[in-house]
Every structure is written in structure tokens, then in C-alpha cells.
Amino acid sequence: MRLRGTVMNDFECAIGLEVHVELNTATKAFCSCSTRFGDGPNTHVCPVCLGHPGALPSLNAKVTEKAVAAGLALNCRISEISRFDRKNYFYPDLPKSYQITQFFHPICRDGFLAIETDGGEKKIEIERIHIEEDAGKLSHREDRTEIDYNRCGVPLLEIVTRPQISSSDELKQFLKKLRSVMLFTKVSDCKMNEGSIRCDVNVSVRKKGDGTSGTPTEIKNLNSFKFAARAAEYEISRQIAVISGGGTVEKQTMRYNTEKGITEPMRSKENAEDYRYFPEPDLPPLHITEECIEEIRKTLPILPDVRIRRYERDFGIPAADGETLTRTPELSAYFESVAEICKYPNIAANFLLSEVPSAGDENSYMKIPPKNLAALSELFGNEEISSATAKKLLRRMIFDGIDPRKTVAEESLRQINDREAVRKYAEAAIEQSPKALADYKKGKLTAAAAVVGRAMANSGGKLNPVVLSEICAALLKEVCGNDVP
Ligand code: ZN
Ligand code: MN
């Protein structure tokens, strides 16, 4: 369901996110059970995470450290005192019948994360970040439901934004950027397939200039960026259709049906009161000193935003490309080691962002030693090889591990820049293309492309394309005389 631009243009939408990021601590938040993923069901459980009577939680210090690191990286204020609360509800994946979370006094507040949009940098404000525990996992079989409590008590950060995201594209940008910051700060592995980053998306729509704010609906538990963006897009269209038809949007909780590509109501939206939040009596307030915060600040790496600005300033790489180059710490470290030894970092960046993924996949760069990508960028930048040759070499660098300089020498792949040599190829191509020539004479100027293509193919892709086009155009004019338009 896509609405026409004109209808869409009468409305604006506000999207807010609650992102759950699983922390990569070795043990759970309030007990010493392992957090390892993929082991047999119910092998990492104890009286604390199973909620046996009399078992008492105690906070894992690593959880605090990682929460503070994430908060600093997201430009938040760290609370000197934060507290834990109980969120009460029954569900079979929650053996205690309450989740330990931080409702009244979260550990971090008032941060932001900047994303690159078409209109330049945009800061999305982060209202709060709190620590909470994950629930277990239910698997619905044909005749029964199985339950695994291994995930019960695994520490999570819940990152809550203000509703300042205005499109599904911005939503995707935000999630990618957040993932990259979490990876750089080493607080989470952000493995989507293991569910270590999931989000709830709040969407509201209103008529432009209306002044009131729209009624938000919440789409629960989206575990891929793609689905989050699609769900938001669908929900925006749905709400516009409801309002345009004279109806009102109901405040409700939705799920995204990935098969049908639609949002479906789950239940009318519950309010905070329904959870009977109250302070967790078994955990003391969490006190974080200024010294402790400074210690953690010192351990923070250079974050993506700083790197993006550097790439822009030092290499002329647009910020949007910089954002992709800092997608993971591994990719940015790789790019920086190439840039260090390469005369043309911007060319290397282009290869990394477009040619490498299209030849293999987005991780194929790992198969190329940095010095080889640097060499390829210089061969191309110095006009020693054509772009067609560069692409072919790149493919072989990924799949056969060749050294581009050696291969260019051994197989004499150097670009032909010499005008006389190029002219010979062009003349031969014109002779071999009587049909194109006839077309050209009839005024079909695009027929020149056929001649260029043939010359290029005859040379094995080695001709300098700029020189070749120039010479072909001149020769065709000559051959046909001046009676061609
Ligand atoms: Zn446990
Ligand atoms: Mn939560």
C-alpha cells in the first residue's frame, strides 16, 4: 500500500524508537549464569534467574560499565544515582512475573545521535537509556510450546529516542548508526540473527500545519532494520488512509506480519500504570561517581562521527560515504590502513563502497590485503589501468588473491592512453561496424556508442575511455562529412 506523493505530501510523520541492545557481558545481569548463545535449552539457569523464592539478585559491575560507555558515546548525561524497578506482568517467558528495569530513574538521559540525511546532519535526541533484563524464549511447535530460560536475565540496554525521525529512510540510517556506535564502544555484538538488537517503533501521522500531534501506534519487536523500515512505511500509509477517510487513529500496539507486509493490531495499548511499577526492594540504588565516569570515558575509542569528519576533511569523502565506511570498526580500520599507504584514499573508498560489494559481498574486502587495494587505487588513479580493468582485477583480488601490480605487468593490462594507438583501434572498429555507421549517417548519434564499445572490446577493455570517445566522435564526423546533424 503506497500512497501517491501528493496525498503523502499533505502529511508529516513522527517516528520514535525504543531499541533493545543486548550487552555482551560474559555473565547475566543479576546472577553469574553464562550469557552464551546457542547452547542447549535451560543449561544457563539458576535460582536467581528462575525466580525461586528467597534468591537474591546482585548487579554485574560490567553491566554498569557498558551502560555508561554507551551513554557517553550517545552524548548522554550519566545519572549519579539511578535505581531499579519492577515491571509486573505475567507471561510464560518471565518466571519471576516481573522484569527488573529502570523506570523512574534511568542511568542515562538527554543524549543524541547524529545521522546524515539529504538535508545534512540531523541530531535525533535520546530521551533515556535504561538497564533491564531480557526474558526467556518461547518456541511454538505444532502441538506444544517449548521454553528456554537461557536468555532470562541477560542484560539489555533500552535506548529511547524522542519522536524526531521523519521517514523510514531516516529510521534505517539511525539504526545503522546506532549499531555502529555500539560496535565501536564494544558494548554489544549487535548480531541481528541472534536477536541482540531489536526495536519497537512508534509511529504517528498528522496533517501538515495542523498543530496537534497525531495519535501514535507502537509496532513491537522488529528484529531487522529492513522490517523496521518497512513496518514504519506501511504504518504511515495506513494512518494517512485512516485520517484521509475521516477516521481517527486508535492508540494501539501492533505487530508486523512479515509475510503479508502489513501491521496488525495486537491489543489496545497498555499504560505504564498497568505494570504497577515499584522500586526493586532487593537491589540498592546504583551510585556512579564522577571518577568512575571519567575512567570509562578514557577507554572510549574514536567514535564514528569523528572519523567521518576526518575522512571528509583529509580525503574529501562525503559524510554519507563516511557513514558507510564506519559501519563497523573492522571496515573503518581497514579503510584507514589503506588510506595511510595510498595516494588516492577517495578512490580506495569508492572501490570499497561500490565495487567490492558488487563483486562479492560487503565483507569481501577482508580477503584483500590493504596494500593490494592501495596498489589498485594508485594504478587507476594514475590512469595506468582503465576502470574496466580495475573491476576485473578487483574480482580476481577477491577470489584468487592476485597482486594487481604483478598481474598488470604479467598480462600487460596497462591502459592505452597514447592517442595514435587509440586511433588505430577506433578506425578498425568503424570498419567493423557498417550498421552503426549507417545508423549514424541517418542521424542516430547514439550509434557512436556501438563503435566505442567495439573498440573497447577489441582492446580487452584497455583503452582510455575518455580519449577513445573523443577520437571516435571526431572520426565519425570525418567519415560522414558535415551533413550529419
Ligand atoms: Zn542465573
Ligand atoms: Mn524494554
Descriptive report:
- With 485 residues, this protein is α+β, with helices and mostly antiparallel strands.
- The chain is 40% helix and 20% strand.
- The protein contains 16 helices and 16 strands.
- The mean pLDDT is 92.
- Bound molecules: zinc ion and manganese (II) ion.
- Zinc ion binds next to loops.
- Residues 28, 31, 33, 45-46, 48-49, 153 line the site of zinc ion.
Kindly list the characteristics that best describe this protein.
485 residues; alpha+beta; 9-stranded mixed beta sheet; 3-stranded antiparallel beta sheet; 16 strands; 40% helix; binds zinc ion; binds manganese (II) ion
Briefly characterize the structure.
By secondary structure, the protein is α+β, with helices and mostly antiparallel strands.
Strand content: 15-25%
Low-confidence stretches: none
Kindly report the average pLDDT value: 92
As a whole number of angstroms, the C-alpha radius of gyration is: 29 Å
Rough outline: elongated
Describe the largest sheet. Answer: 9 strands, mixed
